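To assess whether the prediction recovers the assembly geometry, we first specified each molecular entity separately, as shown.
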Amino acid sequence: MDLTFTQEELDFREEVRTWLHENVPKEARPHGDRPDSREFDLAWQKAQYDGGWAGISWPADFGGRGLSTIQQLIWYEEYALADAPWIGACFVGINHGGPTLIARASDEQKSFHLPKILKGEVVWCQGFSEPGAGSDLAAIRTRGVIDGDELVVNGQKIWTSFANMAEYQELLIRTGDEQRHKGLTWVICDMRTPGITVRPISTMDRGAEFCEVFYDDVRIPLTNVVGQVGDGWSVAMSTLSLERGTGFMADILHATRTIDELIEECRHRRGPDGRPVLHDDEYARRLAAAKAEITVLRSITYRSISRNIRTGMPGPEGSMLRLQYGDLVMGLSRLAIEILGPDALAYVDRFRAGGWTGNWLRAFAAGFGGGTLEIQRNIIGERVLGLPRG
Amino acid sequence: MDLTFTQEELDFREEVRTWLHENVPKEARPHGDRPDSREFDLAWQKAQYDGGWAGISWPADFGGRGLSTIQQLIWYEEYALADAPWIGACFVGINHGGPTLIARASDEQKSFHLPKILKGEVVWCQGFSEPGAGSDLAAIRTRGVIDGDELVVNGQKIWTSFANMAEYQELLIRTGDEQRHKGLTWVICDMRTPGITVRPISTMDRGAEFCEVFYDDVRIPLTNVVGQVGDGWSVAMSTLSLERGTGFMADILHATRTIDELIEECRHRRGPDGRPVLHDDEYARRLAAAKAEITVLRSITYRSISRNIRTGMPGPEGSMLRLQYGDLVMGLSRLAIEILGPDALAYVDRFRAGGWTGNWLRAFAAGFGGGTLEIQRNIIGERVLGLPRG
Amino acid sequence: MDLMPSAEQDEITTTVASFLAARLPATAHASVFVTPGPEIDPVVFRECAELGWLSLGLPEALGGVGYGLAEEVMLFRELGRGLAPGGFLPAVLGARVAAFAGQRELAASIVAGEVLVALATRDRVGADDVSVLHAAEATLLVVCDAAGAALYSLADCTLTPIDPVDGSIRAARGALGGATVASVSSEIDPVFVRGLVLCAAMQAGSAEAQRDLGVAYAGVREQFGKPIGANQAIKHRCADMAVRAEGAFAQVCYAATAADGGADRFVDEAVIAKYFADEAARLNGEACVQIHGAIGFTTETLPHRHVWRAHTLARALAVRAALLDHLVPRT
Amino acid sequence: MDLMPSAEQDEITTTVASFLAARLPATAHASVFVTPGPEIDPVVFRECAELGWLSLGLPEALGGVGYGLAEEVMLFRELGRGLAPGGFLPAVLGARVAAFAGQRELAASIVAGEVLVALATRDRVGADDVSVLHAAEATLLVVCDAAGAALYSLADCTLTPIDPVDGSIRAARGALGGATVASVSSEIDPVFVRGLVLCAAMQAGSAEAQRDLGVAYAGVREQFGKPIGANQAIKHRCADMAVRAEGAFAQVCYAATAADGGADRFVDEAVIAKYFADEAARLNGEACVQIHGAIGFTTETLPHRHVWRAHTLARALAVRAALLDHLVPRT
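The predicted structure of the complete assembly is given in tokenized form:
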């Protein structure tokens, strides 16, 4: 066990810190997932590309920085400490679609798409979930029928974040008659193809990033298929986790910062009895417990990254981290709005200063984003602890 | 809705209060389920019989008081307020075995057993659970084979409270070859019959009321069968709930009293920082929340009893009450030992003053007594809310 | 002793529920963050007034229907269950202040739905800073606490509208100002305590609605080939919702009946009702959204509106810490 | 940066675990409430001393093995996991006090297992009233807090034995007395903070043991024809135990490594380790007993002994409220 960094790593941290300090946008990211948030997200991605920081976890062969795991960790730590923006509309391209292309796409597909993603020229979205196939992807029913050198797609996707502003979609469809995981195909869908209708769905935190996407005889060239037709499940499962869990450190440090801000706030803010909230033993201890929990999450993440470096494999902690983080952000935002008292009657979006109510409403999504917390518990119980399936 | 009592009921309350005030034993019940606790429990039962209070919920035809539901409620409320003893070893006879006999036994069986139970002459125990058949009674494997006019019983029971001091047992055995609920028989077993071995099991709260009972060619006269041979499941399910939920009020008022005592204690007891515990906002609020929860439980019970009086049927609240009460006593005893700080290093049994650690250790049994809390949640989900079985 | 509603009390439930379903359906405001136009159609509000909803618990001698708090909670539970808009709670409380202060005409115009009342909650004990609900079309403002209750002219107060979490309620922040239009001490009429019970009744109704929405969805939504309600994780969550809903309404009934019977400790009972119902509505809201998964996070289903409403009502009259501190004072 | 144990550190785990299984098996004291005879066989204790267990983290210059706190936590995690009896923690802390106070001979006799040390925790900040663990055969007593640590002669203190919840640890209450035999300030050696981490390591080991006991039972115990671990209610409880156990040990490792590296904020890290590990051990204990059902309530299985032990260690050195108050002081 060792918590020290090498001199080279310390120098790297300094370099990152300086660049972020000079380049992080001063203005807040616009909320509501309107065109201006797209422009904001792409501009920030382009700035990172221009600065030489695009795709910090992507291999250098594909235009990424190909940083070591420790360097990635340092990047994300400094990213959070610099209060750099949420990745927003660039998430799927950088963290999911791109890594899948790297793992399984043809050279033509890679050389066409990967630079666009890194340079912030395009937005990608994910087309996996369907009504009736959310947590259970093998139940996908959107169909693709081969007609000449094209796939003709009909069906519907849902919960497609940023579909209303995306150029491309990683689309998982059923092309064969087999059941469940067989007969699926992973294809790059150009969102400007005729026959696609996108309907944004408004959310309880006044966002509109989730969309429904309808496909009505949408014709996609077979050259857009990644891997083989019918091999979609394997392609979807092969998405490289290029970050090795380091990206999670940004979320953790962001939450740590939130807790520290809340504690500062409580030094002056008065509760219903007129005392500063921090003089109230209950609230002071709930804040302290939140601080302890996020610190422990930091330690688990460090251990997880250390294990990953040694074995080259993601450990069982991924689901544990997701589970704890989900519980923690819900608890923390609940605590914040309780402390806020009457101020919490007003809605303030989560990208603005004091956006506690926006954060709280957003936290309702933590329970199902990336699989429900129940499913994380099933995964831990079955895959980590070896308990039988129900 | 109406919370008033009639003059007759108020007079009855006065009568009960006076009698209890004069007759409740002054000394604490001995802990540890040794012979002296048996003597204590039987003596108190006899005192109630002599005072005309035995079997307050039993019909008058069978020697009980046959009180109205409201009168029973009043009895249990006053019982708790008078700090009258836990029923202890008399529980099964009064609340389970006796009521089953009333529902299904022959006149000979009734006239022999019921008076002995009411007079505090005998202790009954329950022989239902087995290793492998705890929550799932239909898995019972202890066998009874008819040989002439006797049943010859072989097998094992477990979690049989007070078997080490009981004269009789309500014993559920498998007499037929059918599966699950069929082929069971409910029989009165004299615990002094040769072939019975009782082994007390010590518990984490230093009790020994749970026993294992082994049956080695135990011969029980067929005349001891209640109902018909093979009809045991129906007999077991027919146990009359004579109390209509009023008995639960004694537990609730006992817990209420415990919370009030703890609050009093916290006025003077100092926490690790030297302040009186009640000046600590966190502990004061946790105590207040416990007070609120037990008060709500009282209201649910009142509503449940009211519904029961109107419909003559137990409502769905039984499982809800059990669930909430289980959670509450666990949380309350946890709070108590936290408040106690270093004083909680010492074990003090639950029948003695300040017996918080004994109470806390005992609370671990609340999670599975009368079916686990998980099973209560299943029952509410399936029978009350109509959700599908898993 | 009988804590179940009488046939007459059950009749209130039925009448109110069918009126709300027909005239103020909860689904009317789905998919918008801030309801356009007035908070409630004034015509419908006056119809409710004509049905006696604003004077149900006011003594006949003071121009009311003369029922007890037990009958009023049946009404307010349905208002909560149905996510009804409109300042019913401040109208009922304000009318009591006017009536018990001897201002019969003012009381009459409030219970007729002609004069609208907003509900103010002091931001801290004794402060003139207040948070105000149902502020937009009101001309009066009722504020109450353990000591007593008063009506103010809204025009005399300095209020700034806010963008509310619950867009179906017009809200504002500001300070009380001007002389009181009418006031009563809590010995004359416990307006504050009655308000706690009625607000708790709305939260109890919301907790029940969330239970029903969650159970219904869990029974039909399928995953991995079976309804999600067959899974213990969902089933037990539903069971916990049922337990909280039962507790919230039972305590509301007890507190209301205790108040009607003049019981000694009805203040504590009311405080417990508000505390427990606030918690039940909040926790059932969280559970219901989670059971619904992603769809529950959208504005296309009802759960989120109960979350917004429960959040808002939990800040009315008294918050959790203040309620608990009343039950176990520090000295 | 590497927060996984080195091969050498893993070797400590293996060695300690096999020694404990052979010489101090956890099952040895099942079914009794108070272990008869001495708390630990003095011969076995001296064998542990010969293996270097009591001086693992003491600098070589002071007669120790010269490892860091990171190596010590590997040992104490196994002591916790294995429910080892005996005053290992006070011996290690007491030896540091003697050694850093310049009393080399006293330190040597402690690390040799010849002089036994008891662990005292002040009942309140600054109080002389103490609770003492491992009191029976000890001649010295170590007491420490954020300011510093001291050894007292047990004979000078007024102690009354108590009937302990955890009968495998001899406990007493009383007051400190007499002059200190040796003392060090926390600037010279942070004895208290090291104690927090080592105590947390024992609790983390207990949390892991409870996880493993619970998972093993859930996998074999059948009800309604399938292992109970197939039910989500049990499976999710096991998952939560795993998450807590992972968190407790990860934080212990971080705190130990931070202390060894002289990091600024290692006091906070240690405080968090103790807080979180205390909670993990307690909650995993409750969960493990519940998973076992009635058998878990008896003394015939191990879970209850972890419950007793976790309860006892949570009261050593600093309790929950004090730990949290250190993290967020009121001013």
